[in-house]
């Protein structure tokens, strides 16, 4: 039974499938140059193995020479595509050197094409049969004369080997260790089988050519690596698409929220200002005491609108926290809330000091969330905001005399509690909340200052 043709046919099928697959992958725009070069290399290997099958089954010298020239030509085409594949895969692209190598392979290909016998022989007298260990016979040339061009072919092989191994070395140093090792193993196998086959051509010993098995090893090893990288690339692309989608949703939600805040605060405040300003001239003569009261209200509303605008701008550009003390930021926020909600807020700020930006942002956002919740849900008439700082800790306390609620019965995430807690945990602060139905709510945020944490970068 002829086992070798069956094995070689399997190799042909593998190389053909892998080659077409990667060309289609490249055609779809996924690293096209890399996958198309690899696909063409695989198809060249497929062509090479088909030539080997024909060579082993040749019955006359003419058919053998034709098959032999086919094998050599396919090998030169393979090395040309292989050079570009290695350059792209390792991101090592000395264009002049690559063009020189490809010029050599083109020279070998044309020399093999026009030579009567091809490379590596310039004469073949007859064919004989060579018996494999299991008894199978393959065709083997006798009465051969070595073609002098084989010396240049050896030079090309050495040059390709040096280029390939150095490219692997550079890729390894760049941190792509797994990819570099896979390519290195594949290249070493190719070099080993190429050396074996050239020794057979030089009549050093008789054996089966091994290049076809080296080609298949290269195709399988690199295809697995490329497929893994492709899956990772596709997964990363999907993650980026999803991230971009979520970012757009977040941007849209933030725009809607800012629009609501502008409508609920600044817009309504300015409407009140315009109404009062329009009414004042009409009652100036008849009720001067009312005018005085409305002017004071007008001033308060204007200050509240300005404070609210500053806070909205701060939300759009958190870098505005830089250079401002946390106490001043909290006071501006309180002024804006008072102007909008007509609620009494008693503020006490002591020990204000420079703090890292991320700390100020968390304390500011927690205060903002707490005051917004009080306005929307608590129905309180009085709120207390206390901020205290020293060399050991900073502490924020916000309490109201509103409706309160039962913490145990509160659904997860209700009233922004989870948001405030997560913000506190992000800086290692302690967040405590106390609330009872009919007795108001109290929030305490404490950040303990560790050694060196107050070295603010200017």
Count of alpha/pi helices: 11
Topology order in helix (H) and strand (E) letters: HHHHEEHHHHHEHEEHEE
The rounded distance between the terminal residues' Cα atoms is: 83 Å
Helix fraction?
55-70%
* Number of β-strand runs: 7
Q: Please tell me how large the radius of gyration is.
A: 40 Å
Mean pLDDT, to the nearest integer, reads: 85
Q: In percent terms, what proportion of residues is strand?
A: 5-15%
Mind explaining what this structure looks like?
31% of the residues are buried. 65% of the residues lie in helices and 13% in strands. The longest helix is centred in the middle third of the chain and has 73 residues. The mean pLDDT is 85. A hairpin with a 5-residue loop joins strand 6 and strand 7. It is α+β, with helices and mostly antiparallel strands and 458 residues long.
Write a compact overview of the structure shown:
By secondary structure, this protein is of the alpha+beta class. A five-stranded mixed sheet has the order 3-4-5-7-6, with helices on one face.
Sequence-ordered SSE layout with sheet pairings:
Elements: H1 3-27, H2 32-56, H3 61-90, H4 95-114, E1 121-131, E2 137-146, H5 150-173, H6 177-201, H7 211-283, H8 288-316, H9 326-341, E3 344-350, H10 357-378, E4 382-389, E5 393-400, H11 417-426, E6 430-435, E7 441-448
Parallel strand pairs: 3-4
Antiparallel strand pairs: 1-2, 4-5, 5-7, 6-7
Helix pairs in contact: 1-2, 1-7, 2-3, 2-7, 3-4, 3-5, 4-5, 5-6, 6-7, 7-8, 8-9, 9-10, 10-11
